[in-house]
Amino acid sequence: MTESVFPKDFLWGGATAANQVEGAYNEGGKGLSIFDMISFIPKEERTKDIEMGVSSRKELDTLLAQDTSGNFPKRRGVDFYHRYKEDIALFAEMGFKTFRLSISWPRIFPNGDETEPNEEGLKFYDNVFDELLKYGIEPLVTLSHYEIPLNLVQKYNGWIDRRVVDFFTNYAKTVFNRYKDKVKYWLTFNEINVSTMEPYIGSGILVDEVEHVEQAVYQALHHQFVASARAVKACHEIIPEAQIGCMLARMEVYPETPNPDDVLEALTQEQKNLFFTDVQVRGYYPSFMLNYFKDNGIHIEMQPGDEEILAQHTVDFLSFSYYMTMVASGDAERVKEKGNFFTGVPNPYLKASDWGWKIDPKGLRITLKKLYDRYQVPLFIVENGLGAYDTVEEDGSIIDDYRIDYLRAHIKEMGEAIKEGVDVMGYTSWGCIDLISASTSEMSKRYGFIYVDQDDYGNGTLERKKKKSFDWYKHVIATNGAEL
């Protein structure tokens, strides 16, 4: 076997979120979450690339009235709630060193603002963590992965209200105390920057109830920054040996040409993406964002002590999701052509996935080097993967060579970054078991090494089957990345 460039204690594994795998939305005392309200819209009926949000109280009330008559895929997930032992045994068979999962906040505090937790919810995660530790798999736990209790939206309009900081702090302390002997790797908010694109999903904001949406979003984000810092403080006090990180949806941006207008636009977009990690890793608001707030009539209301807690309780490591890269143009007319997912212009040098996401393995190496140069803290790739249509052959096999090719190329570039001196803690491939898509609520958009027999409408046996990529990833882990 060739020698591996990956550290001997490298954390190989896979990643999921409670709202995409657990199901059992109305069992065990769980309250409704914001994602429980997202209904499935078939691809041919969608008006945009993603369908994640709810924009008004009227829309929310309509969805609540549908109750069981609508198709709400995130309520059913893939039944991890009842099948976690079977699923974790498969993860162990692949050799996982870590498994990233989230705790459903409304499973612990059904309404979000109670003082006492739901014991049945706490017990469920005790059981899950015990099962992971039985196999020597370290839990990597996200405190808030688009899992805001719905009551906090209805009652407070989400994170706009400062009181939600206290509710989250109580929740974080509760789970730190409960699982201090079982979990030593934590993340605060999943893809914290998503609030700027989807205010409902990131911050629980109904935009029809605010006058200045951007003002509301950045105020809510300030509250999340404070809550994150408080969680870091509590984690370090309650579990001194633990490590706690932040999590960013990384948007690597290239200028379309050497035209200085394109280069400046790419830099501006880059700064707005890294603003979130600047606050959580460096501990203060960068000057370029303060200027942006001034130019756009945004005033962040801070309480005494906010700046101090941000400065004193920065994260131990930076984690991020990486799926694609963007291309920026200083020409507004060019941008209207729409290049990739959210924004930008087309990149003619890259192929795209079935969902139009540009595939750019080298971009992962670029972003690892950039992030490490900027922050000099350990990095953790906690989401990376290929959403694709899978076909079950007549003999029951699933030959997903396209997924193997995607992951191989990205892991290779991660290795190159490590050789160049970047400190990378681990890699958790997204959707290690097929799950409900966050962006479109589809089941047919599959990421996993493990196939789950369920369609977009909830039909199927939920049987688990290994794909070809299962054994491939098992070998990658067994050789610590030396053989891809």
TrEMBL record:
Cited Pfam families: Glyco_hydro_1 (PF00232)
Entry-linked InterPro entries: GH, GH_1_N_CS, Glyco_hydro_1, Glyco_hydro_1_AS
PROSITE patterns: GLYCOSYL_HYDROL_F1_1 (PS00572), GLYCOSYL_HYDROL_F1_2 (PS00653)
Record's signal peptide: none
GO molecular function: beta-glucosidase activity
One GO BP annotation of this record: carbohydrate catabolic process
Catalytic center residues: E383 (nucleophile)
GO cellular component: cytosol
Keywords linked to the UniProt accession: Glycosidase, Hydrolase
Similarity section: Belongs to the glycosyl hydrolase 1 family.
PANTHER family the record matches: 6-PHOSPHO-BETA-GLUCOSIDASE ASCB-RELATED, GLYCOSYL HYDROLASE
Protein name, entry field: 6-phospho-beta-glucosidase
